[in-house]
Amino acid sequence: MSGLNREVSIEFETPDIFHELPLHLPSEVLDAALWELAEKIWPAGTEFQRETTALVYADLTDTLMADGAMYASLGLFETEGGEVSTANLIARVESVDAEEPAVVAASVQEELAFQEHRDVHPVDLPCGPAVLSFHSTEIDGDSALSSLSFAHVELYVPSSVPGWLAVLSLSTPSFAELPRYVGWLRQIGETFTFRIAAQPEEASRTPTDVRSVFG
For 131-179, how does the pLDDT look when each residue is reduced to its tens digit (9 = 90+)? Predict the structure, then answer.
């Protein structure tokens, strides 16, 4: 079967701190799923907090789907100091040249290494070679709010099915907890697998055609 007649699905497991956003759900069940997510985020919160959270993530879900995200979740846990640490985790799949995974990984590493202020490392996962990248960004504040910095960790995983690259992107303002998030991202990478599924011949080969399956 040619590349035009294939699609790749990805599977991985996430730690319990990550609460999945209900992407790709039918509209008739989306509101209920968003409310369930809000209840997980605010188990002892008020109705107003849950309603506001559900509305915010409804907008975010629409944006992520428009951007072609296959998976998104909110990481949420209490630190040893009693503070709440948060992170966003997003997975997407990109179309790349149909090379061997090692060649794709080397190309990604070389391209990222040329970008300023990035720390890039090759990693070996059970599914094959991958690339881990670190960088940070800062959002300028206004007269009422101070600027906010984010740490970004990205795991680039070439597919064993030639022509695809999975990207897991984690962002957090909690720099002190970054080692824990990196450890969780590595755990996710350890469970990462690719599968091939049949696809109608007339379907086009784009990242949005790729289906995701998450355990």
Answer: 999 999 887 655 555 677 889 999 999 998 888 899 999 999 889 999 9
Strands (E), 146-192: 148-158, 164-172
How many CB atoms neighbour CB 34 within 10 A? Answer: 22
Rounded distance, CA 101 to CA 125, Å?
12
Degrees, nearest 5: CA angle 188-191-195: 120
CB 174, CB 87: distance < 8 Å: yes
- Cβ within 8 Å of residue 57, ≥6 positions away: 21, 34, 37, 38, 74
CB environment 82-94: b (16+ within 10 A), e (fewer): eeebebbbbbbbb
Which residue type, as a one-letter code, is found at position 52?
A: T
Distant-in-sequence, close-in-space partners of 65: CB < 8 Å, separation ≥ 6: 23, 24
Would the pTM count as exceeding 0.85?
A: no
From residue 206, alpha-carbon distances to 3, 4, 6 in Å are: 11, 9, 11
Q: How far apart are CA 104 and CA 106, in angstroms?
A: 5
Pairwise CA distance, residues 142 & 195, whole Å? 47
Class of domain 3-23+69-209: mainly beta
